[in-house]
Specification:
The protein has 205 residues and is of the alpha+beta class. The protein is 26% helix and 23% strand.
Length: 205
Amino acid sequence: MRNLILLVCLISFCTCNRHVQKSTTALPPPPPAINEEYSKYDCWFSPRYNIGDKVRVFPFNKAYKIEIASFPASIKWIDSITGLYNGDLPLKNKKIDYTVFKERLILNNNQIDTLFNILFNYGFKNDGLDRLIGHSYCCLATKNAIIFYDKRGNYFAYIGFSFAHKDYITFPQNIDFGVFCNSKYGMIKAFMAKHGITYGLDDKE
């Protein structure tokens, strides 16, 4: 009788064990974390230059002063049929129209160093991505800019931002302002907000 009871228990244990193993192997793997795919496009500290190198990097090396500013979107139509348009600095007679500026600040040396570090020393973790991720030159409602001036007070370069589109435009067009990984827009917004530029940072067109 005792042997019979032991045999029944052994059979029951094996049956249950097979059922557990079968259930476990049938379970699907857990889904990947949502940020796994997108994290490679985020910003990592990947220094290209020392702060002292800015004297050799255009347009910092040619700038007598550097200004951050905000202004109402200035729309320049590219094609009225397709509806493509571009943002630009507010100009009047080929000169900047400061009368429409909302806020502006000339940066001091420490602020310039911080800005240089943000632009050039943060990039993709995978260096190859900077060749795959571009930006458009159309459909930008530019409301914020970093403007570079020469000794005569004339602007010779700028980078304009449309935070609503998470995009930017440059002058000259092919100028290198570093790699624009995902969170760099947030870093620039935070920099501007810290120094009193608030207009245009709300992601609204």
